[in-house]
Amino acid sequence: MSEHVSKGFVLILSAPSGAGKSTLARLLGERCRGLLTSVSTTTRDPRPGEREGEAYFFVDVATFQERIAANDFLEWAQVFGNYYGTSRRFITEALGRGLVVVLDIDWQGARQVQGNMGDADVVSVFIMPPSREQLRTRLCQRGQDAEAVIDRRMDAAAAEVSHWDEYDYIVLNDDLERAAEELAAIVAAERLRRLRVERPLRGILETFGL
Ligand code: ADP
Ligand code: 5GP
Q1: Domains, the chain, ranges and CATH?
Q2: For the chain, is the Cβ count within 10 Å smaller at the N or the C terminus?
């Protein structure tokens, strides 16, 4: 069924840092049409090569706090001592256009989105790394964080993984291609959920006098 006849939803991807969320989100975008990745706002410093408005919008703490007060964020959280938040307006507009919006957010943000939006609007996926050791290897291979930053991310990894059972789906990211295929399958199946296709099907039902 074409994505154009089903309602959009928010696709939450959570995982410990370095498990492969950004890589998988990019591969998913290449495999599925009608997908949009939400660009979060953060107070952390840009990594080498990160450009404003691509991975993130980078702001200072005062600006972030003003935007919290203005209720601009659908969800926000402090992760590794920095603020991160998802623009409410961006999500509302994308869902209004029937798109699937990918959110790369932590478990605190996932809880807020699951609490603030109805079941029909949210699908959540936890990306599981193959092991703690392989997670550290990936963080080191990415080569974008200092040793001390990697140590802090490893300390937080167990806390993030402990929330795995709050998600609808678990995708093991051992083989990247297979994990990307599984994510694409989740999107395809979730687009066919009755609660998402019922309304667009109305025209067909009418031809049966229903
Ligand atoms: P995250 O967005 O979750 O912090 P990234 O997508 O930046 O993680 O991935 C971290 C590093 O691990 C990157 O160098 C990426 O190329 C690598 N990586 C991701 N998935 C795999 C995989 N299945 N096998 C091996 N390396 C991977
Ligand atoms: P990084 O600094 O590695 O890009 O991201 C660190 C962590 O912050 C990741 O777990 C990522 O999922 C999370 N994160 C990124 N953007 C957001 C956001 O808008 N909201 C929340 N709650 N977490 C976010």
Answers
A1: 3-38+98-207 (3.40.50.300)
A2: C
